Amino acid sequence: AIPSATNTLDLRGQRADEVRDLVESYLDRAALEDRSPVFILHGHGTGALKKIVRAYLAASPYVRRWAVGGTGPGGDGVTSGGLCRGGEAPGRARPDRQGRAGTGLAR
User: Fold this and answer.
1) Which of 5, 16, 3, 26 has the alpha carbon at shortest distance from 74?
2) pTM, 2 dp
3) In degrees rounded to 5, what are phi and psi of residue 26?
4) Are 19 and 52 in contact (CB under 8 A)?
């Protein structure tokens, strides 16, 4: 899958203290609409948004796997996540072993 308006949350320019609620709300909607994978665009900046996003994805019961951006557009300024599907039991997410965006997420 590739990032699009329907599967991407753009957090660039947001304040760090607002990001967690925005990500949680976005994942709620995406899970209800059975959208997976999702892409979260946090940008490079100071790294604060990236740190918050990745920590949240790692602990979220909605997220089956997450991966850092690869060498394509956005690079490390994007994090992708594969959400649990309807019949899957929620659990703790694991980072993608390859460390590449999209790897193992499009199921």
Assistant:
1) 3
2) 0.77
3) -65, -45
4) yes
